[in-house]
Design brief:
The structure holds two protein chains of two kinds. Chain A is an alpha+beta fold. Chain A has five helices and six strands. Chain A has a single domain, classed as Tgt2/MlaC (Nuclear Transport Factor 2, Chain: A). In chain A, strands 1, 2, 3, 4, 5 and 6 form a six-stranded antiparallel sheet that branches. In chain A, helix 1 packs antiparallel against helix 2, helix 3 crosses helix 4 and helix 4 crosses helix 5. Chain B has one domain. In chain B, the strands form two sheets. Chain B has a two-stranded antiparallel sheet. In chain B, helix 1 runs antiparallel to helix 8, helix 5 packs antiparallel against helix 6 and helix 9 packs antiparallel against helix 10. Classes of the chains: A alpha+beta, B mainly alpha. At the A-B interface, helix 3, helix 4, strand 4, strand 6 and helix 5 of A face strand 2, helix 2, helix 11 and helix 12 of B.
C-alpha cells in the first residue's frame, strides 16, 4: 500500500470513528433530555392518574411506538393489513405508556446515573443506566434506534426487556388466530379495569 | 433437629444434576446486531423500516422447557388469587401496624443475618472480591449499624451496591442449565435449578438453623415465615413487582415466565 493510500485509509478510519462517537453522544444526549423531562414532569404531578396525561406527550415525542409494535409482533407483522397495523400500534402505545407510568410513584424521585453507551449495530445505541429508586438499585438499559432521529425502542429493567416480554405473548396470540387474535387480546388488555 | 448442611447440599446436587443439565433452552433476548436496517418509509414523522431482519430482531426470544404448562397454569391461577385476596391484605396490615422505620429496621436485620448465603455463594463462584465486600458489609452493619438495624454500608461507596449472590446463581455460573419451568405454590415461578438453589439458600440461612435447631415445631415455621427471602418483610415489594409485571399484559402467565427467565439470566451475569 502506498504511503498516501495508507494515510487516506487511516484518515477515513479516524473520521468514521469520530462520526460513530458523535452519533452515540447524540443518542445519549437525546435520552438524557427525554428522561429528565419525564422525571421533572413526574415530580410536578401529585397523582398517578394525572401522570399519564402529563407524561404521555413526552413519551410520544421520544419513543418509536411503531418500531416497538413491529419488534413485539415480529414477522407476523407482514400479515397485518395497514388498518390492523394502525390499530395495533394505537393499542400497544396505550399499553406501553401505562406500563411505563406504573413504575412511578408520585413523590418518589429516582436518581439516574448514565453509563458509557455502546453501538451494537449502525443506527442503534444502547445506554446502560443505574437507577436508585425507593432505596434500591436497578440496572436499566435503554435501546435507541436512529429512524429519522433518535427514538427509544426498548427498555430493559434488571435484564427484563419490555419488548421481549410482549413478543412471547404476541407470538402465542398470533399462532392462535393471526392479526385478529393479537388485536382482540390487545383491546381486551387496554379495556381491562385498572 | 440437627442437619448437616454440606451433606444436604451435596445430596440436592446429586439428585438434581442429571435433571438439570441440558434441559433448558435459554437464548438471547438482545436484538441481533447484524439486523441493522435502512430507513425506507415514514409514518407520523418517525421512520419505519419493516424489513425481514428488523422484524426478526427478537426472534431468539427467551424460552424454557415448560412440559408442565397445564399444571403450572393451574398453580399460577391459584397463586394469583392467593396473592390478591390473602397476601395483599396481609402485606397491607403488616405495613399499617409497623411504621416505615421499624419495617426498614426489621428488613435490614434479617438481610444482614443472611450474610452467609451471599458469602458462601460468592466464594463458590470464586468471586473472592465480592465475598470480601460482603464480609465488610456484614462487619460494618453489625458493629456500626447496631446489629444490622441501620445499613451503614449504604453510605460507603465500595459497599453500597453489592449484587446479592444466591445458590441458583452459583449453579448458573457453574454451567448448570435451568431445567424445566415450575410454578411453586405460593412461592411462584422457579426453574428446576433455582428450586434446588432455593433449598440451598434455606440451608445456608442462619435463621433456618435457629428456627429448627432451637425453636422447633410451629415456632420454627413462624420464624421462617418472617425471615425467609419470600416473607412478610419483603412481601410488599414482591407483590408490587408482581402487579407491575402482570398489569397491561395479554397473558399473565407468559409475562411472568418470560420476565423470570430474563431476570435470572441477568442475575447469572452479575
Amino acid at each position: 500500500m502506498k504511503p498516501r493510500t495508507l494515510l487516506l485509509f487511516l484518515a477515513s478510519l479516524t473520521l468514521i470513528g469520530g462520526m460513530a462517537r458523535a452519533t452515540t453522544e447524540e443518542a445519549e444526549k437525546h435520552l438524557q433530555t427525554a428522561v429528565n423531562e419525564v422525571i421533572t414532569a413526574a415530580d410536578h404531578t401529585s397523582s398517578s392518574s394525572a401522570l399519564e396525561t402529563t407524561v404521555r406527550p413526552i413519551l410520544e415525542k421520544n419513543i418509536s411506538f411503531d418500531a416497538m409494535t413491529r419488534h413485539a409482533v415480529g414477522p407476523g407483522w407482514r400479515q397485518f393489513t395497514q388498518e390492523q397495523q394502525k390499530e395495533a400500534i394505537h393499542l400497544f402505545t396505550t399499553l406501553i405508556i401505562r406500563t411505563y407510568i406504573s413504575k412511578f410513584t408520585p413523590g418518589e424521585h429516582p436518581i439516574i446515573t448514565f453509563k458509557a453507551a455502546s453501538t451494537p449495530a449502525p443506527g442503534r445505541v444502547e445506554v446502560p443506566t443505574t437507577l436508585l429508586y425507593k432505596g434500591s438499585h436497578y440496572d436499566v438499559t435503554y435501546r435507541l434506534e436512529n429512524t429519522g432521529g433518535w427514538y427509544i425502542t426498548d427498555v430493559v429493567i434488571e435484564g427484563v426487556s419490555l419488548i421481549a416480554n410482549y413478543r412471547t405473548q404476541f407470538d402465542a396470540q398470533f399462532k392462535e388466530g393471526g392479526a385478529i387474535s393479537v388485536i382482540r387480546s390487545l383491546t381486551r388488555s387496554v379495556d381491562e379495569k385498572r | 433437629m440437627k442437619i448437616s448442611f454440606s451433606s444436604l447440599r451435596l445430596i440436592l446436587l446429586g439428585v438434581s444434576l442429571p435433571l438439570l443439565t441440558g434441559c433448558a433452552t435459554l437464548s438471547q433476548n438482545k436484538p441481533n446486531p447484524a439486523t441493522s436496517t435502512t430507513v425506507n418509509d415514514k409514518r407520523d414523522g418517525k421512520s419505519v423500516n419493516p424489513s425481514d431482519d428488523d422484524l426478526d430482531d427478537y426472534k431468539n426470544g427467551v424460552s424454557i422447557a415448560d412440559p408442565l404448562e397445564p399444571l403450572n397454569r393451574g398453580i399460577f391461577w391459584a397463586n394469583h388469587q392467593f396473592y390478591r385476596y390473602i397476601l395483599r391484605p396481609l402485606s397491607n396490615a403488616y405495613d399499617a401496624v409497623l411504621p416505615q422505620p421499624v419495617r426498614t429496621g426489621v428488613y435490614n436485620v434479617f438481610d444482614n443475618v443472611e450474610f452467609p448465603v451471599r458469602f458462601v455463594n460468592d466464594t463458590l463462584q470464586l468471586n473472592f472480591g465480592r465475598a470480601g465486600q460482603e464480609t465488610g458489609k456484614f462487619v460494618v452493619n453489625t458493629v456500626a449499624g447496631v446489629g444490622g438495624i441501620v445499613r451503614v454500608s449504604d453510605h460507603i461507596p465500595s459497599l453500597a451496591n453489592v449484587p446479592a449472590a444466591d445458590t441458583g446463581q452459583t449453579f448458573a455460573k457453574w454451567g448448570i442449565g435451568h431445567g424445566i419451568y415450575i410454578v411453586l405454590p405460593v412461592l411462584g415461578p422457579k426453574s428446576l435449578r433455582d428450586t434446588v438453589g432455593l433449598a440451598g439458600d434455606y440451608a445456608l440461612n442462619p435463621v433456618t438453623w435457629i428456627s429448627f435447631g432451637v425453636i422447633g415445631g410451629i415456632g420454627s415455621v413462624t420464624t421462617l415465615a418472617i425471615s425467609t427471602p419470600d416473607s412478610a418483610r419483603t412481601l410488599h415489594g414482591k407483590l408490587d413487582t408482581y402487579d407491575a409485571l402482570t398489569r397491561n399484559t395479554l397473558d399473565r402467565y407468559l409475562a411472568i415466565r418470560t420476565a423470570y427467565i430474563q431476570n435470572r439470566k441477568q442475575t447469572a451475569l452479575k
